[in-house]
């Protein structure tokens, strides 16, 4: 029989139960025992859902209270000194102090860095390493969960991030050193870990090495063999899992490792099946990721089955089936989507439906011709035919407009120095101008009003009045604090992508399609199913109202085309660059309408620019070319006197700094506070031509920033960037913070800016 398994399942719960429990625990509203009970109930429900879907081996270890990489750091005893308990204890609050800088118990401290997980919108907590780093088994969560699943009589497959990927994804703390020197000690700790799992009764362990889809230096590639030779445990089989791309030049390394099985991603790299089959040793299992774990479209089951049959003929029972990667990146179930348009709904598959597709393909390979099987494949065909023939997908007017775009549409009228002079004449900003990234606290009153409006319980006029009152609060607060460029606060917005998608054609939306971004932060990605256009202005009235309340400039706040692309579930029937340009044209129209309404500063956020970068460097330039072109298509319709800002956060930008400069935004704001301005190292050898705002405090931590700390960060920034190019701002939006946290933090930030103006007044 063909074996099925899952690499991971969404952990937050269909109704975001984990999110709510975490936030209640952090606020002191529930006990630790109640939080632990919530996690236990979710794990058991998710194991049952996967087993009921026909999955043979269930993942254990994919559940995390904040992030799976953070959990592994705790398991290995890799806790930075500032987060260590005086008694050496590691518990759930240790995780939260590392992730947030604060937990219900223990001292307040600075949080660890957070960055994107490969090319996804999931964020992980970056491990920190020192030259004399020691590793030992120090946290029992994984072992407890394996015992829990076994007690429920599930067939388990513990899941671990592999040692090479763990080292690669971490950072040197202090002076740089070769992280590979830590591999022997780390491998010893992994040996202990695997031995414990074997003693518990695990037969298979999934060990993820996603860096095998990257360009690896020769010494890293060579390090795999020695490490995995030391990981052998009698009676324990290792399934080496790779995903997000092709093995490419790492194929030889992967197939030769002393493991019992190899998982490959055939969704992102279908071309690698034949080379892998040709080189796979005869005793090894091949797990094929045949169902897309990152997007929500139904699988073409006929095509997938045709792709699998040659492999099944060659491998027999050594062929396993699975989703391409963990299902962490998709919502839990379509069953909760009662309001979703039926035509579109039939085109989709969430986590539960994807597991049913995996099981159905396995049964088909095993010769099952039952009525249930025939219905599954018939539904797949009907859905594909419906989508291909739907008149809702293609819009000739959008396609015609896109065909008329020329290079002129992607160029500002004048170079930055000329624009800067005009903008300064209009805006009259001081040295070290202060602003925020856009959003202000989404209070319970705001959320309740939005929910009531959506349910038809609040009239449109009443909703508008309430949102305008919230905008007035935000504007007044900013004026009182002394900020220089204000924002309207985004009270009316549910999400920086969903809000715009709701007003654009070609988008569909779910009620419960939540996906974890980091910790308790969940997003509900829109679905781009067809050609995109803007029927009407989306933000102009709110921005115009905010500007009417103040003499200071108010920024219009927009989300850029690449971020809307990356943070949505995107159609796969046309090139990504075409969809990005359709989005860019819609944003371009909005910029022009904001200008006509008197808005002279417009921010077009692109936090996902780095996220969209292909994993292999050979493919970078092609992506960067069209991504930059798309941003410029969105922004370059602006007049010279209109100051265009963009924002990027929680990703490494140093290796694409030239492309960022080519965006030609007048001001770019980036996250640098958690890294202590390390990201500005890119500017040592690159003279960035325009203005830049390095974030001076971490909004994802509830800790209050100190004035001296922010002044110090900006003085560090002046060592790399001329002080006249520097802005002062937080590192991200303030949506998730409270006003009680926001006011003193921004007051300290304004004070820091004023001190810097005095210090550099004559420079």
UniProtKB/TrEMBL annotation:
Pathway listed: Amino-acid biosynthesis; L-methionine biosynthesis via de novo pathway; L-methionine from L-homocysteine (MetE route): step 1/1
Gene Ontology biological process terms in this record: L-methionine biosynthetic process; methylation
Gene3D superfamilies: 3.20.20.210
Lineage top rank: taxon: Bacteria
Residues holding Zn(2+): 647, 649, 671, 732
Binding site residues for Zn(2+) 1: 647, 649, 671, 732
Domain Cobalamin-independent methionine synthase MetE N-terminal: 4-314
Keywords: Amino-acid biosynthesis, Metal-binding, Methionine biosynthesis, Methyltransferase, Repeat, Transferase, Zinc
Active site: 700 (proton donor)
The record's free-text note on cofactor binding: Binds 2 Zn(2+) ions per subunit.
Binding positions for L-homocysteine per the UniProt entry: 437-439, 490, 605
Cofactor(s) listed in the protein's UniProt record: Zn(2+)
Binding, L-methionine: 437-439, 490, 605
Reactions this protein catalyses: 5-methyltetrahydropteroyltri-L-glutamate + L-homocysteine = tetrahydropteroyltri-L-glutamate + L-methionine
GO molecular function annotation: 5-methyltetrahydropteroyltriglutamate-homocysteine S-methyltransferase activity; zinc ion binding
Cobalamin-independent methionine synthase MetE C-terminal/archaeal domain residues: 432-754
Assigned protein family: Belongs to the vitamin-B12 independent methionine synthase family.
PANTHER family for the chain: 5-METHYLTETRAHYDROPTEROYLTRIGLUTAMATE--HOMOCYSTEINE METHYLTRANSFERASE
NCBIfam families recorded: met_syn_B12ind, PRK05222.1
Protein name per UniProt: 5-methyltetrahydropteroyltriglutamate--homocysteine methyltransferase
Species annotation: Exilibacterium tricleocarpae
Source species taxonomy: Bacteria, Pseudomonadati, Pseudomonadota, Gammaproteobacteria, Cellvibrionales
């Amino acid at each position: 029989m063909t074996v099925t398994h899952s690499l991971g399942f969404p952990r937050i719960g269909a109704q975001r139960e984990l999110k709510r429990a975490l936030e209640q625990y952090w606020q002191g509203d529930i006990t630790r025992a109640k939080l632990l009970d919530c996690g236990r109930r979710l794990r058991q429900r998710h194991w049952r859902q996967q087993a009921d879907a026909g999955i043979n081996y269930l993942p254990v270890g994919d559940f995390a209270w904040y992030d799976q990489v953070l959990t592994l750091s705790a398991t290995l005893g890799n806790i930075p000194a500032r987060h260590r308990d005086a008694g050496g204890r590691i518990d759930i609050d240790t995780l939260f102090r590392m992730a947030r800088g604060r937990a219900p118990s223990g001292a307040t401290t600075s949080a660890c860095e957070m960055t994107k997980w490969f090319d996804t919108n999931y964020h992980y907590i970056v491990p920190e390493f020192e030259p004399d780093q020691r590793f030992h088994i120090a946290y029992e969560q994984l072992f407890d969960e394996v015992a829990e699943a076994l007690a429920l009589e599930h067939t388990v497959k513990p899941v671990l991030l592999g040692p090479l990927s763990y080292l690669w994804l971490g950072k040197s703390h202090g002076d740089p050193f070769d992280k590979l020197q830590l591999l022997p000690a780390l491998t010893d700790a992994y040996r202990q870990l695997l031995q414990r799992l074997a003693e518990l009764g695990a037969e298979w362990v999934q060990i993820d090495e996603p860096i095998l889809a990257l360009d690896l230096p020769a010494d890293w590639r060579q390090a795999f063999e020695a490490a995995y030779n030391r990981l052998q445990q009698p009676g324990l089989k290792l399934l080496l899992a790779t995903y997000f791309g092709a093995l490419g030049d790492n194929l030889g390394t992967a197939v030769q490792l002393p493991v019992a099985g190899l998982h490959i991603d055939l969704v992102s790299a279908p071309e690698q099946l034949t080379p892998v089959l040709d080189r796979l040793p005869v005793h090894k299992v091949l797990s094929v990721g045949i169902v897309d774990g990152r997007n929500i479209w139904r699988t073409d089951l006929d095509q997938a089955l045709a792709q699998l049959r040659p492999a099944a003929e060659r491998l027999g029972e050594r062929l396993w089936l699975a989703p391409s990667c963990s299902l962490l990146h998709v919502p839990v179930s379509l069953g909760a989507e009662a309001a979703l348009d039926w035509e579109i709904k039939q085109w989709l598959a969430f986590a539960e439906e994807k597991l049913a597709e995996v099981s159905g393909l396995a049964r088909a390979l095993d010769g099952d011709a039952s009525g249930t099987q025939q219905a599954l494949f018939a539904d797949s065909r009907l859905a594909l035919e419906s989508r291909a023939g739907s008149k809702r997908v293609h819009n000739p007017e959008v396609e015609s407009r896109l065909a008329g775009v020329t290079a002129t549409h992607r160029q500002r009228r004048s170079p930055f120095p000329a624009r800067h002079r005009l903008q300064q004449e209009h805006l009259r900003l001081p040295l070290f101008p202060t602003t925020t990234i856009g959003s202000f606290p989404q209070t319970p009153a705001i959320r309740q009003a939005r929910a009531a409006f959506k349910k038809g319980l609040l009239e449109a006029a009443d909703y508008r009045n309430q949102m305008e009152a919230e905008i007035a609060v935000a504007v007044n607060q900013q004026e009182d604090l002394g900020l220089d460029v204000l924002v309207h606060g985004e009270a009316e917005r549910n999400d920086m992508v969903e809000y715009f998608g709701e007003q654009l054609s070609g988008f569909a939306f779910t009620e419960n399609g939540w996906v974890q971004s980091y910790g308790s932060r969940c997003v509900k990605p829109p679905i781009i199913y067809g050609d995109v256009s803007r029927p009407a202005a989306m933000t102009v009235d709110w921005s115009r109202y905010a500007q009417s309340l103040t003499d200071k400039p108010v920024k219009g706040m927009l989300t850029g085309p690449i971020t809307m692309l990356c943070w949505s579930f995107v159609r796969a029937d046309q090139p990504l660059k075409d969809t990005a340009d359709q989005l860019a044209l819609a944003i371009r129209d909005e910029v022009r309408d904001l200008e006509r309404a008197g808005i002279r500063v417009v921010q077009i956020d692109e936090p996902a620019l780095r996220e969209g970068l292909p994993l292999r460097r050979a493919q970078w330039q092609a992506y960067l070319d069209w991504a930059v072109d798309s941003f410029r298509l969105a922004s370059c319709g602006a007049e010279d006197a209109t100051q265009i800002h963009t924002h990027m956060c929680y990703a490494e930008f140093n290796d694409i700094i030239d492309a960022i400069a080519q965006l030609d935004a007048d001001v770019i704001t980036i996250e640098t506070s958690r890294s202590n301005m390390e990201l500005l190292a890119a500017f040592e050898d690159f003279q960035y031509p325009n203005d830049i705002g390095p974030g001076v405090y971490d909004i994802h931590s509830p800790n209050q920033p100190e004035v001296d700390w922010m002044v110090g960060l900006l003085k560090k920034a002046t060592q790399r960037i001329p002080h006249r190019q520097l802005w002062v701002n937080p590192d991200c939006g303030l949506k998730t913070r409270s006003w009680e946290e926001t006011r003193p933090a921004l007051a300290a930030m304004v004070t820091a800016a004023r001190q810097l103006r005095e210090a550099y007044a004559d420079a």
